């Protein structure tokens, strides 16, 4: 268990982490999300005693990190895959970590095997690809067989097989009852991996909730309809008090989960439907929705926006009148 209580970090006038209070629980994968500059890395660094909080507290299984004896046996972390001595072989890098944390030498070969680096164990880390470096960093995190694992952007540089591997690794570590805390920018990947989400924006806590609740609370669920009898269907739905909006692609959309009712209304009036499908926005859309206010670094593009509808939505509700 990792517990944060009012954790705050200021750099001069800049509040990088602002009064964060949450707990990362064992037995599940907790995803840590936030836009660029939200304060994720600073938070993780404070969890590991690498940065000192301006205020507040963070405890690892009830203790401050710097009071843990042989900390790698309590918490293993991958923060920066490049933070290693490039002149050392993978084996010697891990051996150094093991010896300085009271971990038996036999664990080195075990974790190299777990991450699939046995065949390059004697090669110098500076010749490693980004993906191999990530695997070596993960081996270092696993070395002390800790109850808590923390990964900052672990799938960076991994190929699809590697991404699949780390997803399964994190799930199996959580399945063994360990605490797994992972940050990622890849929302689709997070949606497949995490059970619980902690979302921050501009250093502040925006959400601390299950994945399912997060998507449900922050995204729109609606029914998409396509019909060759558009005007008739609009009349019928309007009569029934159903509010319809037009999507950019020519389909109609009705907020909420009214698919059965719409289908029955269409059937009663013998209106052919080509599509009647309940839709739920993805984690990515839910995340964009929640963090829209707190994005610090915006890209500016002259080209068309890939998320904005091609034409503005037109509402048809109680006040809608056909021309
Ligand atoms: N040593 C530092 N001195 C001054 N400002 C810092 C320092 N470290 C971080 N910051 C600032 O604190 C804020 C949070 O940074 P942090 O790296 O924790 O964000 P992040 O969520 O990890 O971002 P990213 O997703 O881009 O890695 C940023 O505005 C950053 O510029």
Automatic annotation (TrEMBL):
**Region Disordered: start and end of each range?**
297-323
Task: Show the PROSITE patterns listed in the entry.
Answer: ABC_TRANSPORTER_2 (PS50893)
Q: Does the keyword Transport apply?
A: yes
Q: What would you give as a GO molecular function for this chain, any one?
A: ATP binding
**Keywords associated with the record:** ATP-binding, Nucleotide-binding, Transport
Show the SUPFAM superfamilies listed in the entry: P-loop containing nucleoside triphosphate hydrolases
Keyword set includes ATP-binding: yes
Which ranges carry the ABC transporter domain?
A: 2-227
Q: Which domain of life is it from?
A: Bacteria
- Which InterPro entries did the record assign? AAA+_ATPase (IPR003593), ABC_transporter-like_ATP-bd (IPR003439), P-loop_NTPase (IPR027417)
Which SMART domains does this UniProt record tie to the protein? AAA
Please give the family membership noted in the entry. Answer: Belongs to the ABC transporter superfamily.
Return the PANTHER family for the record: ABC TRANSPORTER, ATP-BINDING PROTEIN
Give the protein's recorded name.
ABC-2 type transport system ATP-binding protein
Q: Which organism is it from?
A: Streptomyces pseudovenezuelae
């Amino acid at each position: 268990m990792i517990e944060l209580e009012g954790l705050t970090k200021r750099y001069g006038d800049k509040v990088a982490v602002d009064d964060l209070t949450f707990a990362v629980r064992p037995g599940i994968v907790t995803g840590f999300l936030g836009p660029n500059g939200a304060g994720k890395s600073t938070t993780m660094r404070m969890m590991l005693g690498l940065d000192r909080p301006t205020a507040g507290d963070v405890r690892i299984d009830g203790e401050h990190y710097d009071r843990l004896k042989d900390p790698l046996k309590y918490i293993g972390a991958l923060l920066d895959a490049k933070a290693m001595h490039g002149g050392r072989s993978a084996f010697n890098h891990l051996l150094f970590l093991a010896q300085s944390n009271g971990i038996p030498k036999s664990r080195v070969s075990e974790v190299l095997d777990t991450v699939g680096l046995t065949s390059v164990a004697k090669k110098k880390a500076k010749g490693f690809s980004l993906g191999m470096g990530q695997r070596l960093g993960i081996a270092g995190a696993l070395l002390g067989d800790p109850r808590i694992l923390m990964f900052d952007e672990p799938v960076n540089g991994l190929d699809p097989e590697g991404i699949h591997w780390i997803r399964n690794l994190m799930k199996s570590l959580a399945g063994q009852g360990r605490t797994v805390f992972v940050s990622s920018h890849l929302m689709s990947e997070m949606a497949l991996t995490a059970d619980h989400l902690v979302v921050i924006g501009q250093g502040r806590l925006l959400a601390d909730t299950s994945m399912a609740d997060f998507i449900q609370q922050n995204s729109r669920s609606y029914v998409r309809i396509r019909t060759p009898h558009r005007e008739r269907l609009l009349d019928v739905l309007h009569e029934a008090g159903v509010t319809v909006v037009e999507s950019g692609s020519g389909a109609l959309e009705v907020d909420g989960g009214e698919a059965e009712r719409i289908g029955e209304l269409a059937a009663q009036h013998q209106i052919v439907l080509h599509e009647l499908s309940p839709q739920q926005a993805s984690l990515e859309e839910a995340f964009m929705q929640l963090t829209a206010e707190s994005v610090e670094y915006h890209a500016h593009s002259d080209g068309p926006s890939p998320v904005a509808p091609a034409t503005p939505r037109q509402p048809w509700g109680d006040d809608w009148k056909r021309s």
